[in-house]
């Protein structure tokens, strides 16, 4: 079977990482607040931004 | 104050602008100088944020708190599995497939019966969704018209019907104009990308207005959110995201 390109494999791995991070058992963990912002807000938007940043890093790097 | 004619004029001008952008995109594609770059294409992906998304996601936010984010998180995750999408595009191009029904049928030995079934299921599934879109647009027009004291009909025709006719015209002119459905519709992509920029600006404007106009800035909002019993709870995610809520009118 032909393997997908490394970039696509890395992106798919990132997606598989994102699914449990954004679903239930983990999603109910953050409580309280940090710097006046509820922790669950920070967690959700942080994970989202992190996934986008990692995807951009994987997609944009060339060669190596 | 906005009068009925001004609203009609502005809507016509906006549609005209979209026509112009689509024309420009088509003309550039014909000349071999495509305007579809990675950024334009990325913007056009926001096509899934429909007119109902504006009502649906805001409605989710008022009733279910953070669960409205599912509408945006899901597609973000889906796009990470780009390998599957690229594979689907490659198969479609190789076999000149233009619809999801043909695609699924081709995976199972080009079964005509299966293709017909998928078509029927897709049509049944998409009709209520289109109805929601039209309802969202008509509701927006009616809000503006009621504000100015005029009625949302013309020659006895309902505003929803008029909107449907105009939209059908737009998609006939730019979506189905060419017989070869496998070719790229660059004008359409360009118009969708332009629309996404408009949506982005509109959402930002509403966000800034709500944060600083209706509330006392971000600190105030976070303080109020922190005082809520629990921002995320299991029952706030129980119903389908984007579905109309009984309490939202």
Description:
The complex is a heterodimer of chains A (64) and B (249). Chain A is mainly alpha-helical and 64 residues long. Chain A has helices at 6-21, 24-27, 39-60; strands at residues 33-34, 37-38. Chain A has one domain. Chain A is elongated, with a radius of gyration of 15 Å. The mean pLDDT of chain A is 81. By secondary structure, chain B is an all-alpha fold. Helix content of chain B is 70%, strand content 2%. Chain B has helices at 4-30, 38-44, 51-64, 70-80, 82-95, 100-107, 112-148, 159-174, 186-214, 217-227; strands spanning 153-154, 157-158. In chain B, helix 6 (100-107) packs antiparallel against helix 7. Chain B starts with a helix and ends in a 22-residue tail after the last helix. The chains are: A mainly alpha (64), B mainly alpha (249). Chain A binds chain B through residues 4-5, 8-9, 11-12, 14-15, 18-19, 22, 24, 27-28, 33, 36-38, 40-41, 44, 48, 51-52, 55, and chain B through 66, 69, 72-73, 76-83, 86, 219, 222-223, 225-226, 231-232, 234.
């Amino acid at each position: 079977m032909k393997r997908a390109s490394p970039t696509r494999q890395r992106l798919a791995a990132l997606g598989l990482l994102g699914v449990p991070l954004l679903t239930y058992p983990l999603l109910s963990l953050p409580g309280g607040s940090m710097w006046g912002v509820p922790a669950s807000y920070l967690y959700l938007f942080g994970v989202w931004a992190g996934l986008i940043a990692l995807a951009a890093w994987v997609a944009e790097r060339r060669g190596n | 104050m906005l009068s009925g004619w001004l609203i009609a004029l502005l809507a016509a001008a906006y549609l005209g602008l979209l026509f112009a952008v689509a024309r420009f995109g088509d003309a550039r594609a014909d000349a071999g100088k495509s305007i579809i770059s990675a950024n334009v294409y990325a913007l056009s992906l926001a096509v899934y944020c429909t007119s109902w998304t504006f009502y649906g996601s805001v409605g989710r936010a008022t009733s279910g708190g953070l669960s409205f984010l599912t509408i945006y998180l899901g597609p973000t995750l889906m796009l990470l599995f780009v390998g599957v999408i690229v594979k689907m595009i490659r198969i479609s191009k190789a076999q000149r497939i233009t619809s999801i029904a043909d695609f699924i049928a081709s995976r199972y030995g080009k079964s005509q019966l299966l293709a017909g079934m998928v078509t029927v299921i897709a049509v049944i599934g998409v009709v209520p969704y289109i109805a929601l879109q039209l309802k969202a647009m008509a509701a927006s027009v009616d809000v503006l018209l009621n504000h100015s004291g005029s009625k949302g009909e013309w020659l006895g025709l309902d505003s929803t019907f008029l909107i449907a006719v105009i939209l059908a015209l737009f998609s006939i002119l730019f979506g189905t104009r060419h017989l070869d459905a496998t070719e790229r519709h660059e004008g359409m992509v360009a118009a969708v990308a332009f629309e996404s920029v408009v949506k982005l600006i509109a959402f930002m404007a509403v966000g800034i207005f709500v944060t600083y106009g209706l509330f006392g800035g971000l600190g105030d909002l976070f303080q109020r959110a922190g005082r809520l019993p629990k921002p995320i709870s299991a029952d706030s995610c129980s119903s389908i995201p984007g579905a109309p809520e009984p309490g939202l009118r």
